[in-house]
Amino acid sequence: MQLFFDFPTTPDYSFKSFVACNGNNTARALVKKVLDPDSEERLLFLYGESGSGKTHLLSAVSRDIGERLAISPPPVIPVELVTTDNCREIIRLATPLPILLLDNLHLLQDSSALRTAVWQLFNDFYESGRTIIATATLPPKELQSLDEHLQSRFMWGLVAKLDIADDDSRRMIMKKLADDSQIIIPADVIDYLLNHLPRDIPSLASAVELLKNRSFATQKKISLKLAKETIRV
User: Fold this and answer.
1) Considering the entire predicted model, what is its pTM?
2) Which of 73, 143, 186, 228 could share a disulfide with 66, CB 3.0–4.6 Å?
3) Tens of pLDDT, residues 182-216
C-alpha cells in the first residue's frame, strides 16, 4: 500500500534553510531540545498560522534523524491524509519508526475511529519513550478534532507558537525565498508587496515566484516598476 511513507521529505526543508526570527526562535530551540539524546523532553507541540514554518521544521527533523541514524528519513505524516480506510495501515507502518512526526492535527477528520487511531499511535510512542512532534494551527486545548485525553497529554510536553506576524520576519523570509531562487528583490519591492498584498506567507511566496518568472521571461532585473507591472493590486 503506497502512502506518504513512500515519498521523500522535501529536500529544501532543513535546519540550515530555516529562516530564524524573533517569532520562531523558541520553536526551533525546542525542536533541537527534544532531539538532544541527553534531554528528558520527548514531546513537543508546535502551532501557528499556515506558512509559519511548522512543516519546514518537521521536515528538517526528518532529514536530521535520517542523517544521524543513517536510515531513510522518517516520514512526516500529514494528518489530513489519514482516513478510516488507511488508518490501520498507517499505524502498522509508523509503529517501528524512531520518531513520530504529525503535521496538521487541526485537519484530522471528525471521526471517533480516527481519534482512537491517533490516540493509539501517540500512546505507542509515548510509552516507549520515543520522541513525538506534532503541529497544528491552534494550541492543543483548542483542537476540537482531538479528544480531551490527547489534548491533556500534549499539554504535558513542550508547547511553542510560531509567530511571523511582524514585518521584519516577513522581510527575512521573502529575502530567503529570493536567495533560494537566486534572484535579488530590492527592499522597496519587498515593502511594496507587504503594503499591497495579503500578509500571509503563501501569498507573499506566490508573489516572489511571479516576480522571478517575469524577470526571467523579460530578462529584466526585479524593480519597483516591474513589480507594479506584474503584481496587480
Assistant:
1) 0.81
2) 73
3) 899 999 999 999 999 887 777 888 899 999 999 99
